[in-house]
């Protein structure tokens, strides 16, 4: 049960309508853009929040939310390169993403390879962040064990002092990743668990570069 009657009605409408092959765009990024715009306009809370999973050296997967900051030929997010996810994605550059738009009875799943965005892309995005987030990026040694909150606050105060009166530069350990999809799946919930699923797979033999297949729910 959601707290929004408007979203409840919209979800019921989408479930009734379902998803048909003929409605899908040939380019999965255009299709993603349509669903992303829809979720944004429907007031889904943080539609750009996505779950990214990485894999450790021992094969253990690990998932967390990050915020999508752009998409072109890949899905871009920013983080600390020395964090758990940062190290895992550098050592093992493959990831999965899930957009959990369950309030709309929809999800989008992506699997693909991962690369760092260019330094200039990271610089450009870092420069748009609020100053407190910029100094916070210097203060947080993301994913490290710390004794208590005062350690973090102390490091933040140090960063504030260090960069007082000047623009905060991007820390060298902070930047973006781009997930380049090999597969993108669009899932639309339907009654009686007869959901609609379509998977786009990279396929050079197709005129569009993508093969589209319906999957059993
Ligand atoms: C909604 C939401 C959005 C988040 N966005 C980001 C993000 O864009 N980048 C980031 O590094 N962490 C983000 N976080 C925090 C991560 O989920 C995670 O706690 C942190 O990056 C450390 O992950 P790791 O130890 O697996 O590397 C977000 C958390 C939530 C709940």
Automatic annotation (TrEMBL):
The entry's keywords: Flavoprotein, FMN, Oxidoreductase
Needed cofactors: FMN
All residue ranges annotated as the Pyridoxine 5'-phosphate oxidase dimerisation C-terminal domain in the record: 174-217
Pyridoxamine 5'-phosphate oxidase N-terminal domain span: 43-160
Keyword Flavoprotein appears in the UniProt entry: yes
InterPro entries given in the database record: Pyridox_Oxase (IPR000659), Pyridox_Oxase_CS (IPR019740), Pyridox_Oxase_N (IPR011576), Pyridoxamine_oxidase_dimer_C (IPR019576), Split_barrel_FMN-bd (IPR012349)
Pfam families referenced in this protein's UniProt entry, alphabetically: PNP_phzG_C, PNPOx_N
GO molecular function annotation: FMN binding; pyridoxamine phosphate oxidase activity
GO biological process, one term: pyridoxine biosynthetic process
Gene3D superfamilies named in the record: Electron Transport, Fmn-binding Protein, Chain A
PANTHER family per the UniProt record, alphabetical: PYRIDOXINE-5'-PHOSPHATE OXIDASE, PYRIDOXINE-5-PHOSPHATE OXIDASE
Alphabetized NCBIfam families for the sequence: pdxH, PRK05679.1
Name of the featured protein: Unannotated protein
Naturally occurring in which organism (per UniProt): freshwater metagenome
């Amino acid at each position: 049960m959601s707290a929004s009657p408007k979203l409840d009605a919209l979800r019921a409408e989408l479930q009734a309508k379902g998803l048909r092959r003929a409605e899908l765009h040939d380019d999965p990024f255009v299709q993603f853009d349509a669903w992303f715009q829809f979720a944004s306009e429907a007031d889904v809370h943080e539609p750009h929040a996505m779950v990214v999973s990485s894999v450790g050296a021992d094969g253990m997967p690990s998932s967390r939310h990050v915020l999508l900051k752009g998409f072109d030929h890949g899905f871009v997010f920013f983080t600390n390169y020395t964090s758990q996810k940062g190290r895992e994605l550098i050592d093992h550059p493959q990831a999965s993403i899930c957009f959990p738009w369950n309030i709309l009875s929809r999800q989008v799943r992506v699997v693909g390879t991962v690369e760092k965005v260019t330094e200039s892309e990271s610089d450009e995005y870092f420069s748009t962040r609020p100053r407190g987030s910029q100094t916070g990026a210097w203060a947080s040694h993301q994913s490290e064990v710390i004794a208590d909150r005062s350690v973090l606050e102390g490091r933040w105060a140090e960063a504030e002092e260090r960069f007082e009166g000047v623009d905060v530069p991007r820390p060298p350990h902070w930047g973006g990743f781009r997930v380049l999809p090999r597969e993108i799946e669009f899932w639309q919930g339907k009654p009686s668990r007869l959901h609609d699923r379509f998977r786009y797979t990279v396929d050079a033999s197709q005129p569009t570069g993508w093969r589209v297949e319906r999957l059993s729910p």
